[in-house]
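Q: Here's a chain of 436 amino acids. Please give me its 3D structure as tokens.
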Amino acid sequence: MNLFEPLQPPGRLPVGAGQALQPGYMLEEFEITQVLGLTSFGVLYLATHISEHTTVAIKEYLPSSLVMRNADGQLELTDPAHNEAFHRGLQSFVTEALTLSQFNHPHLLQVTCVWEANGTAYRVMPLLAGTSLLARRASRDEPASQDQLQALFDGLLGALEVLNDAGLAHGQIEPINIFMLNDEHPVLMDFDAVHHAVLSDLQQPHLDAYANPETLQQMMRSDLHALASVLHFAVSNHLPVPVRAEPLVDVLAQLKDSASALGYTPEFLSAIDEALALPAAERPASVAEFHALFAPKPQAATSVKLLKPPRRPKRPLPERPKNEYPLNSSESVLALLANFGRGPVNAPEDIEPFENPPVPTLTEEAEPSLPPLRVSLFDAMDAGEPLPQSHVGYGRLPYRPMPPIPVSRWRRLAPALGFGGLVLVCVLALGWVLTA
């Protein structure tokens, strides 16, 4: 029951809209300056501390369906039969305020003062600047980014861990009950204890969830499952269906180009889908188990031993014939210039004729150690030699007839029904002609 929602427009106010305290009313050392919010079970005021000159938020327990305010500011029951329900809700309101005052967590609602007056109870809280997650998501076209999702996940999970360590469960993890500060800092608002305490006496016997360990464990499981629903809502802008939640991959497929700019991690999104898809009996029972769903999955190390092929011995390189007439570069150039443009005549005695060293051919210097080249198939075809055949045996495939197409009974009766309808039309037409 979040009282930080804005006041409803005129004409749609609850029954107790006129029962709120007017601006200027003094509550202990606080002065009421404005009504911030109003629900069926309470009123939220903006107040100023007279001596410290600080602005705070004050919440008043006011179930409009059970009580009304008189001229003196006191609350009176509209029906004596509502006495038990009112006081049960009042006790729950005070207990919840005292419980929240014990925690000092940045993502939990803080209560600084609690007292009873005017036949009801009040509690003082810091004034938060922002709006609910429900209103924040509705005002934006694009979903939360990966960093915002991670901050929402870490903040709410830390708040639930503090409550679970104290043996408590929240019971109302919903987008309307999560207050988002202007710096995207999430704060988990008050419990749903007052709502259950009042309505349980009117509709069914009241059951204390903290008195039964099994019921408390079930509430903790429900809180963690509701947290996964809130993360899904931050992306898809709609609460997932309890039976089957739409995978976030399909939701992101509709965003097209903007999805890549949000920096989503596929492992984080798949963990949200996995947490929502778990049956009620297999849901995480603690914050540690829930956090383990979002931990990176260790990849199984597959050790494959690669067998190295045996090393073949290196063949010695064939020795090339040495040049019997070694010439340096200058001598080669002089010999080339001396014999350029001359025919087969004897060269002068002062110039030695240029003679090319004998170059062995392949046929003369064939190395017997090298294996012969493999005969190409094209060479064999040109020589008219038979081609080598690879014998591959193909067994005869078994014949399997195609299964008959199933024909429904109505399809078989269609021709008969059509023919019978035609005969009936002809008989009716003949009877109409005879009677006319």
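Q: Can you summarize the key feature?
A: The longest strand covers residues 30-38.
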